[in-house]
Amino acid sequence: MSKKDKNSKDKKNKPGQGQGQRSIFFRDMTAERHFQSQMTKALKLGREKRFSDALEVLEPLREKYSDRADFFELLGVVEYSLEDFDEAREAFAKALEFEPLAKRTGHSRANGPLIQFNLASSYVMSGFPLMAYEAMLAIDCDKLDEIQGNRLDPKTCREFSQVCDQNVTTMAEKEGVPREQFLQYGLALEKGHLSLPRNQPVLARVFFQEAAQVRPDSPEPYMGLSAAYTLEGQSEQARQQLEYILEKINPSDLNALNALVRALVTHGLADEARRYAAQLDALPLPEDLEDRVSLAGTWAYLEDDRHIFDLVEPLLNNSELRTRLVDLDDADRFGEALLLGVVAAAHLEKAGQAKRWLEEEAEDYLVVKGDPSYALLQRTWEALEHHEVGPRPGERFFYYHPQPLLTTAMLGRENLFELLKEGLDEQTAENEFGGLLDKYRALFKEVLLCDAWLEEDVQKLSLTLDVIAELETREKGQAEPDGDSETLRRFAFTRAGSPILHLTALAALIRRGALTEDAPQTIWLGETQATGTLNELTGQAIQWSQEQTQEDTPEV
Fold first, then answer.
1. Could you give the CA distance from residue 102 to residue 108 in angstroms, rounded to a whole number?
2. Which of 230, 407, 453, 483 could covalently link to 391 via disulfide, CB atoms 3.0 to 4.6 Å apart?
3. In a domain, 531, yes or no
4. How many domains in the chain?
5. Backbone phi, then psi, for 74, in 5-degree steps?
6. Cα(286)–Cα(292) distance, rounded to whole angstroms?
7. Which residues touch 550 (CB under 8 Å, ≥6 apart)?
8. Residue 63: which CATH number?
């Protein structure tokens, strides 16, 4: 090799010295600087008590820096300050998972006891007092001063440890169980319940089975096992746990009855669910308001309007009980109770009572947009004001959005896209998906009906109606679809739905060839009927809508 070759600028660089290596190093440093910059910004916002703004800064970092303990430490503090104790708990747990107390060094070691303390505190605030007790056992409060830079006050540490210890004793005495036995049982139960939202059903079952071995006469472990099996998509095993509670432990267990009726309805076994109506009817009136609403919700799965009304009407008509219902820890319970009462009243031809409850709520503004019942309450009120009938068969309204039931039914199952991703041919995937459609057709249809009734975007509504029509074509088993649809005709020509829904359903029937475009049709616009072609009816609907905007629109 010549001297020129040795000194050539084209010679191969040593590992780590090439342009590519330098650029990668530069990019990593840039990413780290960005991370530290955003962390500093979030920390500053937190010190200014602007916790929502701090969370907005941190959220975009979550995916890329999902293994950084310092990120989850700060995220936990922000979430705790926003009183989202579930999220705070998970953030602190992750921080300690990535950097356990025993392995921390330097600044991280100094910060460790405070993070462990914050985890214990978030356990208490999110309803896991025994996990808080266990978490505090990891901190030696008397040796905190030996940790250089320690940020946890030893006195605060000792006082909180004593509170956690006393909680265990108090809970054990209340249950009438020896402290150590209760602690073993309770810890297993809490760990099982923590594993469920983390999508760890197998681990959850291990904990619930341990709890059941300690206290086989307690229903809670079997409720947990049912939830874990449900998460795995094992509906039969989930059902068996609930039946065991009712047959072997307590035939009047409201939680088990509610879960079992819901499960049966979810899987298309409504007739079988009605077999439990006698047990429900025999239950004494729950003193606990939350249990009373829960019982009304169980009757809603069985479509029993009278039982629902009789349970909820006293709550909504009594100002003291109404206030107590609003002040429950579960902030969504009032919205649920109101929706149950309004729909039951409407079905029992008590629309005036339903509207009075809605008007009272509007004055107090107790149900906000984040409430699961808000959209259905708002839409039901509009329907009652315009003398519409319910969108479901039998002119019934929705007691609840059926989407959560469908989500439950699909747990543990592969959808079409997952099957395709695994390399199965399209026909096989469609057959698999078609099987799910056939099994849960009624539930799919309920979800689509609800979505169509709530939807205001014409394009989305049109797509939803097409899916409903295709579902009905599949149900009829037609080799050559005729384009017609019973549901679309009901939406087009009855008082079930808004003028937007009537017109969109009419357009879908024309597009599918069930009707001709130039033939005059009659639809409802509020309390009056209008006749004309699709274009003519569209114009009349616009005029009707403009007239309505001049009036007050009810809002929950």
1. 11
2. 453
3. yes
4. 2
5. -70, -40
6. 5
7. none
8. 1.25.40.10
- The backbone region for 510, taken as left when phi is positive above 0, alpha when psi lies in -120 to 50, beta otherwise, is alpha
**How far is the C-alpha of 399 from the C-alpha of 397, rounded, in Å?**
7
pTM: 0.84
Which 8-state DSSP code applies to residue 12?
Answer: P
Domain end among 133, 150, 175: 175
Q: Tell me the pLDDT of the chain (556 aa) as tens digits.
A: 444 444 444 444 443 444 444 444 444 558 888 899 999 999 999 999 999 999 999 999 998 999 999 999 999 999 999 999 999 999 999 999 999 998 998 888 999 999 999 999 999 999 999 999 999 999 999 999 999 999 999 999 999 999 999 999 999 999 999 999 999 999 999 999 999 999 999 999 999 999 999 999 999 999 999 999 999 999 999 999 999 999 999 999 999 999 999 999 999 999 999 999 999 999 999 999 999 999 999 999 999 999 999 999 999 999 999 989 988 877 789 999 999 999 999 999 999 999 999 999 888 777 878 888 999 999 999 999 999 999 999 999 999 999 999 989 888 664 444 554 455 555 665 666 667 777 888 899 999 999 999 999 999 999 999 999 988 888 777 655 678 899 999 999 999 999 999 999 999 999 999 999 999 999 999 889 999 999 999 999 998 888 877 665 555 5
3-state secondary structure 57-100: HHHHHCCCCCCCHHHHHHHHHHHHHCCCHHHHHHHHHHHHHHCC
238 domain residue, yes or no = no
- Exposed, middle or buried: residue 82 (CB in 10 Å: 0-12, 13-18, 19+)? middle
* Per-state percent for the chain, helix, strand, coil, to nearest 5: 70, 0, 30
Task: Please indicate, yes or no, if residue 393 is contained in any of the structural domains.
Answer: no
DSSP state letter for 556: -
The residue from 156, 175, 194 where one domain ends is 175
DSSP 196-247: TTTT-HHHHHHHHHHHHHH-TT-SHHHHHHHHHHHHTT-HHHHHHHHHHIII
- Report how far Cα 453 is from the mean position of its chain's Cα atoms: 21
Domain that holds residue 55: 31-175
